[in-house]
């Protein structure tokens, strides 16, 4: 397995039109995300990357949506995604539409997204599936340096492991668009062989595990320990207070 972090600087396309059949990819991704965007609520949505900025997010109830990328058009914030200029736990949802494939350090990018997301915040990832017809193009020498074959294609299981390490719960995952040159991606193949889809999408939520015990359970446990210790101390004091038979020379005088 190749390392996730590489020293090379990758230049991502600024528009979906720069990818062969890019419009088909964007339409298919919009269709996959539409039901889930309606479930996201909050105040701030970050669309990280130039391709994310062109995704239709009108179905999302989050009104303040910010496009973030290092360079490109239709951006509100020009910044490196590896150094997001936002406070910790200040963002409700992050959309990374094909941002990981052109990122030199995906681990760092996901940690940065985890930093700015609030508890129970949403993250949406889309990428190319290496186990697909598109992934076969990377094995052809004269195609490796062309878009999108020059991108990094991570398996879905590898992305699940990255999210699990950051305590993200996967809510939805799907591979689609089996035939990249077809607008509908091949309905029959996408229905019966979705694992061979050229694109993959993951919708997950950030879960924060408590590091302390439940206050009620902790208080109950303390009370139980105190009562046991108190009972032992009271018993010991009662035993000491009782007179020893040797100390009373006339036991019958008490009757």
UniProtKB/TrEMBL annotation:
Residues 231-255 are annotated as: Disordered. Pfam families: Methyltransf_11. Residues 76-125 form the Methyltransferase type domain. It comes from the Bacteria. GO terms for biological process: methylation. Keywords: Methyltransferase, Transferase. InterPro entries: Methyltransf_11. GO terms for molecular function: methyltransferase activity. This is Class I SAM-dependent methyltransferase.
